[in-house]
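Summary: Need help interpreting a holo structure output

Steps to reproduce:
1. Submit the protein chain below together with the SMILES for pyridoxal-5'-phosphate.
2. Request a joint structure prediction with the ligand placed.
3. Inspect the structure token block that comes back.

Expected: a single structure record containing both the chain and the bound molecule.
Actual: see attached output.

Input attached:
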Amino acid sequence: MSELINKLVAENLKGLKPYESARRIFAGGDSDSEIWLNANESPFANDYSVDSAHFNRYPDCQPPSVILPYAEYAGVEKDQIVVTRGADEGIELLIRTFCTPGKDSILICPPTYGMYAISAETCNVGVNKAILNDDFSLDIATIKSFKDKVNLVFICSPNNPTGTSVDKAQLTEVLEHFADSALVVVDEAYIEFDAANTWATELAQYPNLVVLRTLSKAFALAGIRCGFTLANSEVIQSIVKVIAPYPMPEPVAQIAAQALSEKGLALMAEQVAYLHGQKEALKQQLATFPEVTLVGDDKANFVLFRHPLKQALMDYLVANSVLIRDQSKQINLENCLRITLGNQQQNEKLLSLMTEFFAQQEPLA
Ligand SMILES: Cc1ncc(COP(=O)(O)O)c(C=O)c1O
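--- attached output ---
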């Protein structure tokens, strides 16, 4: 780092390692020649049309064409939503809105999604951890011990990368415990794969509940960057003070509106059902490989497994242009790899490469 930059860069950013997104790890990858099963994206690329008639104008900050259908879809009121550039922006806005830099902290429950900690660190906000129990349930006693020490509690359900959903009684206990001291943020990025377990419909009951959603997963729109934060209107009004003046590009709003139409919702449901079918087939096949142990649960669009030769397996897949995600650096996930569900052809290619790989290994002791 040059002397000038070293002098100027914010103190809290000096040691920060950026989030290793799947796309950064394999930067410049070509989705036509490679099979991407590493970022929990959808394998479907659906068709949309865009009308450029108003591209000369700044867009609505919170376009009603997106807010209204999403409110209806999620079962909330229109003043209980803010639309953002992906759920990732929702995470950052919550931290910027509700935590004072250099003073306040958040609580996370690892192994979990990495952006809660990274966003907090970039904002000079502290990060406390209550590691999940061995069965990936919440460690309630440890979580509770952070009362009055954190402003936000991030709970991911279904959790990335364990695929587990948080038990209703546990989450109720957390919401009640922090009722007068912190917002409890339930990240539901994968909720369409476990729709019965949503918390969006509980907002009236818990003033400190916040729910994060996205169009990046089941809706197959990771490329447009569109997410939602659902919460009681006071929380939403505070976030809207902080958000950029024009966060929603007009083409994004148009595409999101189409995805949330009756036809768009039906397509999403059909594709989720297809992926559930793929998940069953993949899990059954994985279980037949030597020393493969499925880890966690399957409530989202990915499967996590452990294998002692995870590095050699990963290298073999990458050499054959199939990308999955190494999760082994996360706490309690030694030797774990995560496979995002692809389409049938992609999953079969992955499985045939895994069959080849295991056939080449000496029998394991
Ligand atoms: C749990 C979780 N939350 C949020 C996100 C980010 O979603 P978005 O693409 O809407 O920013 C992801 C993306 O992988 C995720 O796994």
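--- end attachment ---

Reviewer comment: The chain has a mean pLDDT of 95. The two ends are 48 Å apart (CA to CA).
Status: needs-info
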